[in-house]
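Bit of a strange request maybe. I'm writing a small parser for structure token strings and I need a real example to test against, not something I typed by hand. Could someone generate the tokens for this chain?
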Amino acid sequence: MLCVVIEVPYLVALIFRTKGLCTSRHGIRAPLEKTYSINRDMYSLLLDCCKRYQKNLTHIFTLNCHHDFTDSDYVAFDEKGFVTRIKIRIPSLFRDEYDRICAPAYDDENDQYALLDLIEFFAQNIKDISERWNNERYRNYQTIDCHNSSDVFENFQETINEIFTESGLLYELTDEKIIERIVENSPLTTEIENNFAAVHEVGTRELLKDAVALYKTPNPTARQDSVEKIWDALERLKTYYTTLDKKHSSEKIVNDMANGNDDFADLFNNEFKVLTDIGNKYRIRHHETDRIDITDVRYYDYFFNRCLSLIALAIQYLM
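Reply from user aminoacidic:
Good idea to test on real output. This should exercise your parser:
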């Protein structure tokens, strides 16, 4: 009888590269649940992916070794140094009772965003390597040669994003080597982001850039900051025309948006006023005790996108 043994990492990669499975093709499989929550199985797959690329961090964690029998020096990956550095850099990353980085058990509490931080650390630091035996006949030891190139990032990015997709996780490792959350049916488009980047007034442009970055940040604690930033951008936008005072600058923006139509001028004036009132009444730009707390994190996306819609329209009429 022929027995075939497949290594686990290869099997995992094979599973995630298999397209068009039978149940998917014939509509038998239940729709994949989309989520921001990383369960234990997802965590394990993502962590295993990082571990497979550990040696690509050797340029940072270099262990200089000596082989006594051949009296030769060689380079290996310093795993102890890596674990110590990560413990300082990402202190909330889950560890077992022996202080080893590992996947949590099903009942273990863990900080899933610390795992995303680890993935970003790998993405931003991995470099190409080559490994070679000192002697092809005797193979006493392997040494690692580190290169300045980072072509390996594309492979790492593809594998991480395949796990995200296949698991239904609404995250993406971007070409900028950061993880962003995916907001389905979001009004924030690439075109809007490009328009924001083209805003001439530096302060408004930077506030919009920061607001969008915080909006995409996976950790929900960034939601409040994203809303605060975009409201700050709205208020600064009102003073866009620096040769005019705030009142007349706002009037010019609204009139340009309305194209001389009084009905739309009233509509946009009212929307600016309503958003200003929301920013003052709720705990968005001000944090006094008499402000209304936003008690559900999901409300932040509503507030952000409502303010975004008005700004995205307004900047199309800026001169």
